């Protein structure tokens, strides 16, 4: 505790920060801004496309771009990152630090220790949206504009029911951004964290698709229904062919856990259940692959 307060006071004395309230009790300590910013560890992104997206949407939250290897100078996309960062006033640094060189701690957020990469950026996480914001464009007054956004004229939303692999989550975010999904609801418990792996695999999708994390998915789906959405569940055991799902309404597509699929309460909230019917001997798909096909279908890009 004493060390934490000493660090805080030292930072306050060496920076032009406004005074911040400090509340100390026997069981907890509340230190308001700027201490929150000082101890908020940024994500370390290594996909230049993800970094460019962050620079485009929220440059003030990109803390630095660091070139670790000379190989970066030959990478056109990273050169674009450096140029864009400089225009945005983001520091561009050459050379590894103790956080980037050598073996990396496996506890570092969202990254594996075995891939130091040639360049990286330190980026603060995206802020989540409220449910009201996620479902706001379902309202009738927004539907006229929606017709210009989606070939089916009604829009598409997603929900993850305890998807646990960050690579799957990132791949679905990427497909969602490509096809213009309006928003994503994620479960908080037993689910993949929205970490650096998700950002990098998504190639900018996390920056462009609004998302929210909710504890009670069943209740959230009821809120979606009340907002005017129809709930579509997916299961390889469903009898309804996904190719027959009508595109005359706004859908919220629910994607289940990699092993267990949708939970019982989630299924009970679904207006329809459907499956992608196989044409060959393999009868199932990875959830991110199935999601990409379903998103393309429901957004009106596949017939």
UniProtKB/TrEMBL annotation:
Keyword Methyltransferase: yes
EC number: 2.1.1.185
GO biological process, one term: methylation
Record region (Disordered): 94-117
Gene Ontology CC entries for this record: cytosol
Organism this protein belongs to: hydrothermal vent metagenome
tRNA/rRNA methyltransferase SpoU type domain mapped to chain residues: 157-295
Biased amino acid composition, Basic residues: 101-110
SUPFAM superfamilies per the UniProt record, alphabetical: alpha/beta knot
Chain coiled-coil ranges: none
Entry's Gene Ontology molecular function annotations: RNA binding; RNA methyltransferase activity
InterPro entries in UniProt: Alpha/beta_knot_MTases, rRNA_MeTrfase_TrmH, SpoU_MeTrfase, tRNA_m1G_MTases_N
Protein name as catalogued: 23S rRNA (Guanosine(2251)-2'-O)-methyltransferase
This protein's UniProt keywords: Methyltransferase, Transferase
